[in-house]
Structures
1.
Amino acid sequence: MADAKQAVELLQKDIAQEHQATVQYLIHAWLIPSISDEIEGIAREEMRHWEWLSMAVVALGGQPTLARDPLVIEPESAEVLLTADAEAERLAIDSYEADMEQVESPDLQHLFRRIQADERVHRGLFLAMLDEVRHSETVVRPADPAPDAEQLNRVVADEYRAVLAYLYQAFCFPEDEVRHFLIERAVEEMKHLAWAGEHVVALGGRPDFTLPQLPQWQDGIAMLRWDLEHERSADAFYGEIIAALRNEQARSEMERARSQERFHIYEF
Ligand SMILES: [Fe+2]
Ligand SMILES: [Fe+2]
Ligand SMILES: [Fe+2]
Ligand SMILES: [Fe+2]
């Protein structure tokens, strides 16, 4: 049976896997437009798992990891992608089963069982989608990316950094109110990321999900200062992107993101 330190190790391993699932499914959703809503719905649930596991690490006195297991995103066919997703769910089901055998805490048992139940549903959904696309070629092929794709990929990278920063920071604040505020902002930046990423893929590019380096903040004030500075630069950054974009729809979505960043400045 695991002590607190071992329990944190188990949780960190699960966090890296939920982080992978969130990003991988998001990309797969953009690659297979015919079922993108269904896959995005699952990605959102993985992000919730990621959040719950991180809260459990904090409750045990640890710092949640920002590590991520390797992504499967080579778009050979919709079938290959969805097979990888169904397999990822099977591994997750097994790994939560093993976790449950290793911990005594009823809270952790309950958490693992709750997440495992979701993973079982996800696996069933992916298998059903696999049946749906098995004989049709629905994946978006990589092409010579349009210049717009390069601009929008800068948005993907920048928003991904913001998502990770706000999630990480959220778990460092003991006050529920600040934590909740930061998680909500992370969800909003994730939305901006998705608006840009979907266009990157549709324009023949591949979204840039390189793991960013985050600063080592000394305290909560340093975090919030960084956030305010980040929001200010995001406003200017979007101005530059919008001026360079040719695609009408992408431009109007980036304008919407920019107006939300302006509101974030005010909130922070
Ligand atoms: Fe999950
Ligand atoms: Fe899942
Ligand atoms: Fe944003
Ligand atoms: Fe923002």
2.
Amino acid sequence: MLDSVNFEIKEKAKHVAENVVRPLASEHDRKQEYPWKVKEALAESGLLKTWIPKEYGGNGLGSLNLCLVVEELSRACGGVGVMFAVNALGSYPIILGGREEQKQKWLPEIANGERLISFALSEKMAGSNASDLKTLISKNDDEYVINGDKKWNTNGGVAHYYSVFGVTNPSQVGKPSAISAVVVEKGTDGFELGKEEDKMGIRCVPVRELYFRDCAVPKWNLLGDSEGKGFKIAMETLDHARPGVAAQALGCAQGAFEYASRFASRRRQFGQPIQNHQSIGFLLADMSTRIEAARQLVYESARMIDAADKDPSLKAKANKMAAQGKLFATDTAMWVTTEAVQIFGGYGFMKDYPVEKYMRDAKITQIYEGTNQIQRLVVSRHVAREATSLKFLDSFIPTIDQWIPEELLNEVKK
Ligand SMILES: Cc1cc2nc3c(=O)[nH]c(=O)nc-3n(C[C@H](O)[C@H](O)[C@H](O)COP(=O)(O)OP(=O)(O)OC[C@H]3O[C@@H](n4cnc5c(N)ncnc54)[C@H](O)[C@@H]3O)c2cc1C
């Protein structure tokens, strides 16, 4: 169930999506061009304030409302969904780990759309294993000097601020305590942008390598009050951002489903609309059902993230649900968008029709902000831990001694 604030924010996002995003989606995709007009519309509508706390110029509307915006935008264009959400990903390190004066300096400019931000964690050799960073952040009088390369930076080049993660304690390399985060401004000496990647989907938002060569930033830019907090900040950021990726997937699934169901009601074969052929009708029923199931899980995981911000005892539950929501919604999106192409038949394979783009945009949601293999790892660890509280079931489960004849048991024990 959504409340009146949720509906209001959803309507506002839908307005931007239908009036500005959808009409330009195909062009931005084809040209691989950043949608500046969309960014201006988002800033004007105040939607970039959604997740930023009120004290820092935002609307303080939390994760669920962020998801509602991302879902509506992605329903029209999956690329715009992430072009919006990446500003949340980039700013959460400041919201969750920054000092008061840092929040006051950086967050209001992001909330009003004057400045864009990105999140620079991944490296060529450190993707899923984000604790294995090689970028060095060394202290030098009142500066931190950054040396290293970052891979896959979404918003790279268009962002003014970069939340950059690296090693401040080389003796601890490979351990979370080695890592710190600093904010780097575009234009700082020694900070260079690599080429823009030519991507399968989400083509309207740039993804670039970042190079740091003796790039010095004021010591003040270290997030938090001491070194070694970066890994915790990164992991908490990803927990907060995951429902946003799930919402991006949900929007892609919904958008593709709507095209497919409309097409199925108009396309005729064997003398009737193809939706009347049971295999198409039932496929649409399954698509709709899985999307609704994903929606409930995504909204609930976002609510849990919001609740855990107020009550830290809920953090473990929020971590598990954020992983589950991302996993289920993104797998659903890949399945739904692929089947939507199938429903369009040969037309679905052509760029003249909008469904193939949903399939291309959906794929990345299974990969970034933790691949779905990593989400399964996270969920499986929670499941294993939770199993220890199920001891009351033990008397109903035969022990190994009861299953196996004694002579075989002796063999096993050898
Ligand atoms: C378009 C795009 C945008 C991105 N944007 C950003 C960004 O803005 N900021 C940022 O920091 N990063 C970003 N990333 C990086 C993204 O988060 C990583 O690509 C992702 O975490 C996977 O890392 P990897 O690509 O190095 O794959 P790897 O970690 O090398 O994984 C390769 C394969 O092995 C699997 N695998 C790895 N470890 C395990 C394991 N323990 N168990 C089972 N399977 C495993 C993975 O699931 C995957 O299938 C982006 C990536 C892309 C493609």
3.
Amino acid sequence: MISRRELLRLSSIALATAGFSSLGQRAANAAKTYAVGKASTVPVKGGKTFSVAGRSILITQPSKGKYRAFVAQCTHAGARLDGSRNLRNNVITCPSHGAKFSADTGAATSGPASSALGKVKVSVSAGNLKVTF
Ligand code: FES
């Protein structure tokens, strides 16, 4: 017969193996929300790249009041995407090799990149942009 203590020990090993090593670790991996800046600084059909918690985040406004956010890194070879320089009329164009992405969905619309930009959750509150990742 297995003791209660042994059962708990074996359960903790099983949980650790399954990736649930501790509640503290899970909390450390939880998404955080960051204040970015004024929504009014992002032009309609354009965008702006912000530095947020050490990451470059490209926020676009495909139509008035509708915001999208992406990791500002080309999925072809990692070039940085600058919203002010590389985004016109809802098309993000990579400065390195010319891949094009939708400013609404982040989808790659022209090579050499074939994968969509990484999406980031964005919200607006009282005219201020917030992102969560
Ligand atoms: S790094 Fe963007 S197209 Fe190559």
